[in-house]
Sequence to fold (113 residues):
Amino acid sequence: QVQLVESGGGLVQPGGSLRLSCAASGIDIRFWTMGWYRQAPGKQRESVATSTAGGTPVYRDSVKGRFTNSRDNAANTMYLQMNSLKPDDTAVYYCTAGPKTYWGQGTQVTVSS
Fold:
């Protein structure tokens, strides 16, 4: 059974940072395309970052230079380091594998003063 469990969300002020984690079980992330998606209230779900197995992450334009996607293969965990956060980054963030075959339960990120 595949499970993706996100953690690290929360409330942060504009300009602040958060690091999201995605702990995977049931798959070996070394061999999977993995992604981060987000969905803000009243908006469609959108891709934030996607990385193929062994490849370089691809980011949506609005987060380039601020977000960094990485993996710890030994821990079977993926990360999303988010810096210089803006109110527009407020959303539920989802970890995915496939990149859309499996989804985590999501973690809320709120950027507000």
Summary: DSSP finds no helices and eleven strands in the chain. The CA atoms of residues 69 and 78 lie 7 Å apart. The two ends are 40 Å apart (CA to CA).
